[in-house]
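Hi support team,

I submitted a single chain yesterday and got back a structure, but I'm not sure I'm reading the token output correctly. Could someone confirm the output below corresponds to the sequence I sent? I've pasted both exactly as they appear in my results page.

Thanks,
R.
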Amino acid sequence: MGKPEILDYTQNRELSWLRFNQRVLEEAQDEGVPLMERMKFVAIFTSNLDEFFMIRVGSLYDMAAVDNKKLDIRSGMTPEQQLDAIYRAVAPLYKERDKTYTEIKKQLRPYGVCGLDFKDLEQQEKKYVKKYFREQVLPVLSPQTVDTNHPFPHLLNKEIYVVANLKLDGNTMIGIVPVPQYISDILYLPGYDIRYIRMEKVIMEYLELVFDRYQVSDKNYICVTRNADVSPEDEAFADNEDFRLVMKETLHKRRRMAVVRLETAVPLGKEMEKFFCGRFKITPECIFRTKMPMKLGFIFSMADKLPESMRRALTNEPFTPQPSASLSSGSVIEQVKKKDILLSYPYESMDPFLQLIREASTDPDVLTIKITIYRLAKKARLVEYLCAAAENGKEVTVLIELRARFDEQNNIEWSERMEEAGCRVIYGIEGYKVHSKICLITYRNKNEIRYITQVGTGNYNEKTAKMYTDYSLMTSDQEIGEDAAVFFKNMSIGNLDGVYDHLIVSPTSLKQKVLCLMDEEIAKGESGRIVMKMNSVTDMDFIRKTAEACRAGVKVDLVVRGICCILPGIPGRTENLRVTSIVGRYLEHPRVFVFGTGADAKVYIGSADMMTRNTEKRVEVACPVYDEGIRRRLIHDLKVMLSDNVKARQMDSKGAYRRKKQEGALVNAQETFMKEALNARRPATPSHKSEKETFLTRVLGVFQKKKHS
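Hi R., thanks for writing in. Yes, this is the structure output for that exact sequence:
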């Protein structure tokens, strides 16, 4: 095979992702954002980077080991060259993040929010910390020494370890103390202000009490990041009858994967650096010194500790998802039968969809409920309602994806709960993740079988529905319902080659249909118009077709939150392309595709990004929007996003992002949608208390029947 053709209007996906995460860090640097929210963006940047190393850097190490001559089709780089470029690009991001964190921390001090070093503690506080350490921490520590008689322990992924050099009777060794997972990451100090010190600093301060026989020097704390890119289908045990066992084994294996990054609190001495490089089989370029916490999860709970007056100054003004203006009080099922309903999260509440399932669980006309699930919240009313439906004699089929990365354990537990309640639980298709968000309710209307179909752009996750922007379409269109019924039948028998009249489904028809719709716009030349919103763009067929559209004079707008491997503004290639990214208070998550303009525009919403993994290796569903009012609303939303000159950035021809010029009125798309949701004329919100009581009474009755039968 010859070398792949490297296009002059594409860029490397990993470096594009790092630029996205830099935009997240820019939100932390934005002085118009409240201080605690800025600190949260530092935490998000950090957790994003952790996952990037675990997955993307981990997979590049695997590729380098298997075939280091394989070229990336978008940049012409080998895996090793990509790794070198990543480590070079990440180093300045660490410095920028540390500087940003330090500045925010400094600005929080006047508010009494103080992250402290041991030297900052007052005398009484030092006594308090030492007493706490002796009574609560020291008894549960598990210190280890490493020498010729004691092997080096396995360090868990993303856990913190306090380390030091130890000397005893002329012998030198390394001491390692894991920071226990079951004690708090930080210790709050007594008093009105929020003064705290991180647990690894406490342990490091009193390391002489831990290793009391030794002379302790070169104290530090470290954290390793391991490759977490495990593919269950590659395992020899993948034929096991219960796929849950495969996933449990996979999660266990992930804990022991190769190290791809080492973080340290202070620079390592030459001997210790050499020791760790040899132990973890890494180079010094894989070691990053950080002046800020290696774990920042505590930031999110800290806001709850703020007094109300301070919270108003330091956090965003609270926003509660609003009732949908499209719905009145009363049965959601009956209203969806009459007209299509679109919910826009988090501006509108997810409750109407949950109410739809709750009503279906007890409706005597409902026969079946079928749903695909990718990620769920830790507490999920949706599961309660599905279980209640099964207990009430409905046929409930749940296709749950156990390979939803980092949510595997949660999904395993929910699948067991649903099976116990009588739901039919299936696990998708070998080699293909089921990432679609589709639900089908089948009911009998006199002698006819009728359908209500819901298609969404985001997960059925009640927690993220308040933090991610997404759309959820509920329709009683019979033909869409018939397509959905065929889809679920095909999923049940492992058939990926289904034929659908309205839904477009990957891996067979979604990309092909999108390219066909783009061809229709290309045929219009300069009258053509394409606007697509998604999270990432990497699919080369889509990228080539976008360039073809640009050359034909079609105006193309891509609103892409994260990775975008096509470069705009390349002469003779992508001059008619504009790439916009919005990073703001909420995580942008919808996938919306619009082809054409005016009444003839074809509009789809769905679960798929234009990434090869989505178009070829996942089961995704996109649905046409036929309701004229909903089409206008989606096109309006896209126009607002393209007008955003506060949170939006535009990509230049080199792949860098620039804030838009703030000409004319300021437009912040997310704030606009919040105001629109608040100002929409809405009916009085119905009291859900009686509905909930009725539902719980019905469920209790079902369990009582089972108990006595």
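A quick pointer for reading it: The first helix runs from residue 13 to 29. Let us know if anything else looks off.

Best,
Support desk
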